[in-house]
Amino acid sequence: MQYLAPQTLDDAVKALASQPDAKVLAGGTDLLVRMRSDMIHPDVVLDIKRIDETRRITQEDGGWRIGASVSAAEMGENAALVADWPGVVEAANLIGSTQIQGRCTIVGNLCNASPAADSVPAMVAANATVRVVGPEGTRDVPVQEIPVSPGKTSLKPGEFVASVFLPPRPERSGDAYLRFIPRTEMDIAVVSAGVALQLDEGGTCTAARVSLGAVAPTVLLVPEAADTLIGTKVDEPALEALAKAASAAAKPIADKRGTVEYRVHVAGVLARRAAVIARNRAGGAS
Amino acid sequence: MSKVHVTTSINGDPTEFLCEPDSTLLDVLRDELGLTGSKEGCGTGDCGACTVTINGRVVCSCLVLGAEAEGAEIGTIEGMAEGDKLHPLQQKFIEHAALQCGICTPGILVAAKSLLEHNPDPTEEEARYWLAGNLCRCTGYDKIIRAVLATAADMREAS
Q1: Taking a C-beta distance cutoff of 8 angstroms, is the pair B108, B143 a contact?
Q2: Are B65 and A32 inside 8 Å of each other by CB?
Q3: Which of A140, A178, A236, B38 has the most CB atoms at less than 10 Å from its CB?
Q4: What is this structure's pTM?
Q5: What is the dihedral angle through the alpha carbons of A88, A90, A91, A92, rounded to the nearest 10 degrees?
Q6: Domain edge (last residue) among B58, B79, B100
Q7: Could you tell me the domains of chain A?
Q8: At B24, which CATH number?
Q9: Paired sense of beta strands A173-180 and B73-75, if any
Q10: Which residue ranges of chain A lie beneath pLDDT 50?
Q11: Do B65 and A47 touch (CB under 8 A)?
């Protein structure tokens, strides 16, 4: 195996184009585990942490650009980012232990393509995009289009994700992410839900995005669940309709972590609770 | 496979080493540099026995390549005591009998030191969450947490 640590995105793209069996390394909390478990044996590990752009959290066009090497812990320490997108940061901060937090990244979490990835439903609800770089140039892609099935992404050979963009947070808006795990810490979501919504001056919801994790081969964006909130005060009848729509959209498998029936039910419960938190964060009636 | 030449700092000492590109930082510390205080428990980032700091942040050294240490500041358990003078956490761990077999202890001490640097007055809950990535199979958690909180109280008084 060869270890490469380019200092520019261009050099990284060139290196990746000439090394078909290269793996990109940022936090390493999934890659190193797979290497050490003999699941993969890459010819080249391409460490992108020495590329300046990947290391920064910057304000851009009223929103936030988060580099692919930024750790979840660094996100949690950025008070202005937390104030704008508390749901996204809380989701990122749920991943693993303190030790993992110091290394793990939301881009790694996304590109690992697990349907149970904690930060992904929160990013999908936030309408985040990622900047993909590759031999054919740069493109911005909605987060939900990156995973295509468990462990598989839509990235083409030679491409990698350089950063995430969280859009400007509108006035009177809020986001939230909740997951269910049987413990209080350090576990994989059995079901999860993300909600981002916006209210008008009277407290009526004008826009919403609802996402679900761990109930399908990929994280789901559920427009029909969001539609139950739009035009309402996110009150009891709306929350009831939201829970039904979220449960209806959940298409989980049964495994050792939860049955189909359980996951379908809890998808509704979590969507509803996340919507209440998002509504309160947006300044709506509590 | 050509070796990677790495220039780094370990516990404040400028250090150079050669490592295989796929060697972990833990392997380098233990096998190349003789710093065997960091332990390998699971090797997959679950147990925290290999905890070290990189640029002030706690990480599992089993999930870091040795080559990634280039230009970084690494802190290990060997840098915790000053000569024969134990760090207050080490002293309190002895007083509270906060260890049995000792395999998890170096990692817990490194992680606990980092906790107190971030938060000199942690609640029990905060301490337990911060140390949730450090497993102790002798089930000494209660004594460990008491020792950490007692150290925090002492250090606050002393400062």
Answers
A1: no
A2: yes
A3: A178
A4: 0.96
A5: 90
A6: B79
A7: 2-166 (3.30.465.10), 173-281 (3.30.390.50)
A8: 3.10.20.30
A9: unpaired
A10: none
A11: yes
